[in-house]
Amino acid sequence: MTLSCYVVDAFTDQPFRGNPAAVVPLESWLPDDLLQSMAAEHNLAETVYFVGRPDGYEIRWFTPVTEVDLCGHATLAAGFVIEQFLDPLVDSLQFHSKSGRLGLAIADGVYTLDFPSRPPSPIHPDENLLHGLIQPPTQVLAARDYLAVYESAADVRALVPDMNALSRIHRFAVIATAPGDEPGVDFVSRFFAPAQGVPEDPVTGSAHSTLIPYWAERLGKEALFARQISRRGGELYCRLAGDRVRIGGKAVLYSKSEIYLPWSF
After folding, report:
1. What is the pLDDT along the chain (265 residues), one digit of tens a residue?
2. Which of 41, 46, 182, 200 is flagged as catalytic?
3. Helix residue ranges per DSSP H, 25-138
4. Cβ atoms within 10 A of the Cβ of 52, count?
5. How far apart are the C-alpha atoms of 71 and 95, rounded to whole Å?
């Protein structure tokens, strides 16, 4: 069996920036252990698989060590591959996932995700979070992930977390965020998920399901522009839409290759 594999840099218009995802279209689902093994072999933050159906695509995402319930950059990368290589006339897509229905609209080179909103609530942090961040945040909230709020973008840039401590937290991952420090940038963030095999994710669409409702309320505006200030960096066009969020970004192709499986299913 031979499968196509595309590596796409998402949330950027430049190669070697944004967040790379491996995209593997499938005709039907393969065994879960094989999907996980391929993701481990790719050793990227996410490998995304999708299977077509009459009303869109079923979609699943795997880090090198586990399946996750929601991933933004890999969904954007999947939409890019479908539009660029499989269905060039498409301008909107519907994905069906463990987090429910996910939409994607395509216009002027921007791929805009329609994701559920996951607003955070104040929470008492566990000791591993505070120990792992080292620099204490001004506020801690949580939804799926911890949201650690800092006073300045410089504080977020300066974080050098203890990943061993963060791997023991009681949530999926940690988002560190602060107001933007450049003209037109509403907020910045970084994302740490060492327990999921991703010490720092370069650009994290799913984190913005929590970041967007938080910053929309704090800043009193629905449309926001965000930067994730990892080493690679990325840009996101954000909007709060009721109980949904819109997360837009660009993408570029890094590679196209073939996966050779020595057996059939």
Report:
1. 899 999 999 999 999 999 999 999 999 999 999 999 999 999 999 999 999 999 999 999 999 999 999 999 999 999 999 999 999 999 999 999 999 999 999 999 999 999 999 999 999 988 999 999 999 999 999 999 999 999 999 999 999 999 999 999 999 999 999 999 999 999 999 999 999 999 999 999 999 999 999 999 999 999 999 999 999 999 999 999 999 999 999 999 999 999 999 766 5
2. 46
3. 32-42, 72-81, 127-133
4. 15
5. 12
What is the distance, to the nearest Å, from the Cα of residue 164 to the centroid of all Cα atoms in its chain? 22
Structural element, H or E, at residue 46: strand 46-53
The answer to whether residue 46 is catalytic is yes
Sequence letter at residue 115: F
Burial class (CB in 10 A: 0-12, 13-18, 19+), 209: buried
